[in-house]
UniProtKB/TrEMBL annotation:
Pfam families the record matches: FAR1
Annotated protein name in UniProt: Protein FAR1-RELATED SEQUENCE 5-like isoform X3
Gene: LOC111279960
Start and end residues of each FAR1 domain: 46-134
Entry keyword Coiled coil: yes
Annotated coiled-coil segments of the chain: 144-171
Keywords: Coiled coil
Organism of provenance: Durio zibethinus (Durian)
Length: 211
């Protein structure tokens, strides 16, 4: 996104990317289809700021990954009141007393996906909420609940583990290639020694026959 006049430039929580965030007195910038962002994080920051100013809490929802390399290709960002709390039956049948839930089946969300140029674009925007919206001060509001934060942390850790595994696999493949090359060279040297011995034995045999 371009930095509009009156907007404040802040750094995103990953990559040091500069993202435009409106000041408190500015009109609320509403998402719409076709808006582009430099990264998924930039889109998250934009929608989270929109959610704060409108009066709801953003939830990071489902994503679609590449089957080839596991990269995230699309993501849904929505309201933390999305979905419904499902009753859980105990081992012996009775329904457990449900814990308090903030889920109210809210459909508000944006869908973003990465395009051919590598930018993230909004492909769908659902504006309406099915619950009251409450605007809270920035200091008093959690942008994401602890469960969402934990999911993000674990996802990042899993991604790092996969990168490490890929790096170790690459190193192991390179090592095995070196071992194979040394093995081939050793086989050639052994074969040369065998050939030399055979040649020596042949010469020795000829000398014995001429005596």
């Amino acid at each position: 996104m371009d930095l509009d006049e009156g907007a404040v430039a802040i750094e995103s929580f990953r990559g040091g990317e500069i993202v435009a965030v409106p000041c408190e007195g500015d009109p609320i910038v509403e998402p719409h289809e076709g808006v582009e962002f430099e990264s998924e994080d930039a889109a998250k920051i934009f929608y989270d700021e929109y959610a704060r100013r409108v009066g709801f809490v953003m939830r990071v929802m489902s994503c679609r990954r590449s089957e080839r390399d596991g990269r995230i290709l699309a993501r849904r960002l929505g309201c933390n009141k999305e979905g419904h709390c499902v009753s859980i039956r105990g081992k012996f049948g009775p329904v457990r007393k449900p814990r308090p839930s903030s889920r109210e089946g809210c459909k508000a969300m944006i869908h973003i996906k990465v395009n051919k140029s590598g930018k993230w674009v909004i492909t769908r925007f659902v504006k309406d909420h099915n619950h009251p919206l409450v605007v809270a001060p920035r200091e008093a509001r959690q942008t994401m609940d602890e469960k969402d934060k934990r999911i993000q942390v674990l996802t990042a850790e899993l991604r790092n583990k996969k990168r490490l595994c890929a790096a170790y696999q690459e190193q192991l493949t390179a090592f095995m290639k070196v071992v194979e090359e040394h093995g081939n060279q050793l086989s050639k040297k052994v074969q040369n020694v065998v050939n030399n011995l055979k040649e020596y034995e042949s010469i020795e045999l000829q000398l014995l026959q001429h005596r």
